[in-house]
Every structure is written in structure tokens, then in C-alpha cells.
Amino acid sequence: MNNFVFCxxxxxxxxxxxxxxxxxxxxxxxxxxxxxxxxxxxxxxxMNAVKEELAKSDRKVFEFGGIEPNPKFETLMKAVEIVRxxxxxxxxxxxxxxxxxxxxxxxxxxxxxxxxxKEEELLYxxxxxTPVKNVLPLGTVATLPATGxxxxxxxxxxxxxxxxxxxxxxxxxxxxxxxxEYTYSLPATQVANGVVDTFVHTVEQYVTYPVxxxxxxxxxxxxxxxxxxxxxxxxxxxxxxxxxxxxxWCSTMALNGLIGSGVPQDWSVHxxxxxxxxxxxxxxxxxLAVVLPAMWRVRxxxxxEKLLQYGERIFGITSGSEDERIEAAxxxxxxxxxxxxxxxxxxDYGLKSADIKDILANLEKHKMLALSERGDVDLKVSxxxxxxxx
Length: 390
Ligand code: NZQ
Ligand code: ZN
What we know:
Elements: E1 11-14, H1 22-25, E2 31-35, H2 40-43, H3 46-54, E3 60-64, H4 73-86, E4 90-95, H5 97-109, E5 138-142, E6 154-159, E7 162-167, E8 175-178, H6 188-206, H7 214-236, H8 241-254, H9 268-280, H10 284-298, H11 304-315, H12 322-339, H13 356-365, H14 379-388
Helix pairs in contact: 4-5, 6-7, 6-8, 6-10, 7-8, 9-10, 9-13, 10-12, 10-14, 11-12, 13-14
Bound molecules: 5,6-dihydroxy-NADP (NZQ) and zinc ion (ZN).
């Protein structure tokens, strides 16, 4: 196992009716900005419940709505202005990954005096993190199980065709309220996205090369098997509490640092997928469902041992040559995504061979030239992957 430091300071408050803890989780005299998306929280009653709780103290509460899926820098800057003008000192994100991610960017940017007037530079620090101290504290009431944003310190923000990951040591939410019932109102396709995003987060940290990280492997396998067990069920019967609760917890645990500690991590599927969302607006999870099988076919030699382990432990594949078993595991994965209503080819989303050069140009622009657990996914490999995905 590799050396690691693991620290996750987010308090999780999980279950039915847990919004009742909200008042006690936010400092008594905080000036709070509630951030939200396009309005789903008004239709499903979540905003009402949040406001009712906040009304139990006489804090000043402001609101900022309109954070779009794949949140835009320009939208978030409007919230940054409100935070600066009103002296807001606590952010409460109520929504899905886009709202939570966008709120992290607001938390970093609003107090960053050294970046006033040149805030967009904060988009380009990548995995090393933004050099801003004393970011604003934030909490979340999460309404979409997918990204893990409720328990990690990452966010993804878009400016033009740049969809950039943004990190800061201070943007772990202080708390996240996860009430599975708050996700009942999701459209089926968003639930399917959540299952696939969680699945791919897990395999980006599991299907790499072995370092004898047994706890990490067994935990990843537990998440993957749970997703296969409950995936279709929770799409078809959204109010089956237990299935949904399991999806919510798997999503959070798949990307909170736990299963990735001490093991190699890939993330090439995500980085190529981000370019596809930035250029063509395809939902995040759908880009992953396209890139993952192709990536595994192209890099089956580098991932051989873990792909065989994955095939055997997740799908019970034990017969045939190694190559046959690997191909069978990839086909099973595609079948699983398809069974959720998520398609797995570039052409399913209207992309053609001629579009590949634009995706490659964006990868080059963003210096995504040495991706994967081995740093061997250069533009040539990315091209091969995209051609395989057609
Ligand atoms: O905006 P509203 O009206 O709230 O509607 C949203 C949105 O249209 C809707 N929705 C959310 N909760 C709902 C609901 N509709 C009904 N009932 C509810 N309870 O769902 C739509 C999609 O929401 P969005 O937040 O965009 O989806 P998701 O949670 O999948 O987040 C995707 C974003 O997260 C980033 C992605 O790149 C993308 O920008 N990611 C963030 C990560 C992280 N922070 O660690 C990791 C991921 O790999 C990912 O890259
Ligand atoms: Zn993802």
C-alpha cells in the first residue's frame, strides 16, 4: 500500500427529516447566503424546510439562485459580489453537484483579495489547489446523489469551453445534510446519471494496478456491487427509501478520499469526459459511460490484473483466456449502464469522427497530456480511446 494522509472533516447528517438539525449546525450569528439552482428545491419543498429551520434563529439570510448545471464562472461571480457587498460569512448550498461545486468556488473567490479583478485565474490551479487561505465556511443540503461534492473539497467550474476542476483545502463542507427523501423528485435520467457517476468514481480509484490495498479494493467492490443491486430498482421505484438511501451513501463514500487513499488513481476518463461536456453539453455521467469502456479496451494491458479482479469479483467471470475475461467484464459494464438507460457510444450523443479533433484540441489546451495512474495517456492514446468509443 502507498503512503497517504487521510483527513475528512465534513460532518454527515444522514436520514429522513434531518433538516431539523440545520439550525444547530450553522453558527448562531452567521450571515448566511443560501445558494441554489434552477428551482427544483421550490417544487419539492426542500427550500421551505430549509427556511423554516433557519427562521428558528434571527440570523440574516440571503438567497442566490440560478446556478446552472455545469456551473458557469460568470454566474458564480454574481454571487461573489453579493457575498462581498453584504459581508456574508456562511454559505449554504441547497442542490446537486453543480450548486455545491459552484458554492465552493464562491467560498474561495469572495474573500480572495489578492485575486480581486482577476478572479478567473482561480480556475487554473488544478489538483495542486487554489492558493487562497481563509475561505468561507459552507454547508450543504444535498439533493442529488452523484458527485460526492457533499463530502469532498473539489468543484468543477466552466468558463467558455474550459471546464476546470478547482480545489482548496478549506472547501470541505463543514456539514452535509443527506436526506434520501429529498432526492425522490429527481427525474429518472438524473438518478441514472448518479449511479453511473458513482460507479465511475469508484473504478477510477480501483481499476488501476494492484498495491495490495485490500481494504480499499473490498470497499470499492462493495460500492460497485451495491450499485448493481439497487441501480435499476431506485430508478424504477424512486420512493423505495432503502434503495435510495444506499445510493446516497455510496455516492458520498465513493469520492470522499476513503477508497482512494493509499492506492493509485486514474481520472483520465473524467478529464476526457469534462472536455465533452464543455464542448457539447453532454451530461457529466453520460460522457463517462462513453469513455470508460473504450479506455479499458485501449489500456487493458496496463490495467490487466485489476480488470481481471474486477471481472471475477463483480461479475463472477472466471472462464476463458485473460483477454476474453477482460472483454466480458467490459461488456457487462456496458450492459449495466445500458440497463439504466445510459448509452455508451459517442455516436449515441450525435458525435462523429470529425468531432474528435476538437476534444483533443481542448485536452491539449488544458495540458491533459499525461493522464492516468501511470501518466501514459497522452493525446495519441486519448485519440485512440475516442475512436474506439465512436
Ligand atoms: O438546478 P435545479 O433546478 O436544482 O435542477 C437540477 C439540475 O437541473 C436537478 N436536480 C437536482 N436535485 C434535484 C433536481 N431535480 C429534482 N429534484 C431534485 N432533488 O438536476 C439537474 C442536474 O443537477 P447537477 O447539480 O448539475 O447534477 P450533478 O449532481 O450530477 O452535478 C454535476 C456537476 O458536478 C461535477 C460535474 O462535472 C458537473 O459539473 N462534478 C463534481 C465533482 C466533485 N465536486 O467532486 C466530481 C464529479 O466527477 C463531477 O465532475
Ligand atoms: Zn464524476
